[in-house]
What we know:
By secondary structure, this protein is mostly helical. The protein folds into 4 domains: 4-74 and 231-305, 3-Layer(aba) Sandwich (Rossmann fold); 77-227, 3-Layer(aba) Sandwich (Rossmann fold); 315-365; 377-463, Orthogonal Bundle (Arc Repressor Mutant, subunit A). Helix content is 48%, strand content 11%. Strands 1-2-3 form a 3-stranded parallel beta sheet. Strands 4-5-8 form a 3-stranded antiparallel beta sheet. It has a two-stranded antiparallel ribbon with strand order 6-7. Strand 1 (4-7), helix 1 (17-32) and strand 2 form a beta-alpha-beta unit. The longest helix has 16 residues, at 17-32. The termini are far apart. The structure holds glutamic acid (GLU). Glutamic acid (GLU) binds at residues 8-10, 42, 185, 199, 203.
Amino acid sequence: MSVVTRIAPSPTGYMHIGTARTALFNWLYARARGGKFLLRIEDTDRARSTPEATDAILRGMEWLGFDYDDEAVSQFERAGRHAEVAHALLDGGHAYKCFSTQEEIEAYREAAKAEGRSTLFRSPWRDADPSTHPDAPFVVRLRMPQDGETIIEDEVQGSVTFPNSNLDDMILLRSDGTPVYMLAVVVDDHDMGVTHVIRGDDHLNNAARQSHIYHAMGWPLPVYAHIPLIHGPDGKKLSKRHGALGVKEYRDMGYPAAAMRNYLARLGWSHGDDEFFSDAQALSWFDLPGIGKSPARFDFKKLENLSGQHIAAAEDAALLQELGAFLATSGREALTDAQQSLMAKGMGSLKERAKTFPELLDKAHYITVSRPITPDDKAAKSLDYVSRRILSELTPQLQTGSWTRESLEALMAGFAEAQGIKFGKLAAPLRAALAGRSVTPSVYDMMLVLGRDESIARIADAAH
Ligand code: GLU
């Protein structure tokens, strides 16, 4: 059997980080097995669904590299098919028309409460003779079993039992003939050939009810894997108060997509003690038994740490390209061609110890700044009279000799010694001259990337 998984987000608001994690699990599962990974936009709730939210989902998927097969499916557009299935269930006797009004249902519940009975609505129309049906609006309800148990075999939760006495005859079609969400999910999953439903465990109860639609239609159940939701660092359900919830926020904070995938994989899934891994490793390792039963805690420190490792491990050219995309999507100024080539030259040292793209850019300040450089306050302090004199004596010496790390190191050491100063004394004004800052990459790294002419020009500027 070939695997078909899907992500079925509701386009209301932003793309939630939990949705991204669910998408990742489904994507990994399908891709590693040569299966299909599908996208369905669950836009049945017309009041809350917006095109902007759909767009946010599509862009989030694209950023994270979750390529999906076939066209994205709109659930709303399939309403006719959902209704068709409801009618088939009606014709087969698995569903019935219920004419109870809202007021009658309310009255039923009130009475049940007063008598201390279950307030679960039991429709009087379940077994009514069709000849007694009035000419009035009706909903279509599924005839659910009332005794016994419904058992969901779940790859994460194990065998989960639901007493059928807790299941009401759920509505399939509203009185205006529109299908409900619970029906739509099942029909769509069946029609899309979904073999594995991997989703948040807030849908576990739904699975119990949805399974009866499958049974009634004679359709095979998918394999279920309900994954625990993501919690904040305090162990409480992830909410705005914990910080960023939307995928876009992480993109805008400048985490590389590979780091995000790595971190999301670790939210609720593990492979031994492995924390830092590549997509290829995740693809070969990911499986449902590795998903834990307890909620994962979101940990920014861990994400940052992984992000730094991914930046350091990335190929320079790929990193530069992703940095360009980051600048564009976060509305920052693009790099000029000249800056790009300096960046490519300096990437080896820049990418060490940068945890995000903004940190990388901050380290690359010496590349993006242009002459004349105005030093910041702290850097300006190291450009006092004595230091400026030292710099002006250094410039002519930089004109000759080869422009390599070894010869620059030798030259600086000799120069410092002749001046009777420690190299540290020389480094601070050089940082100020080359970058206008007191904290920068190494002086040699900057000089090698900037080249002889630009370095000398900057030092001469500062020496004046
Ligand atoms: N649309 C549902 C959600 O966003 C997912 C339904 C499902 O995966 O079955 O939570």
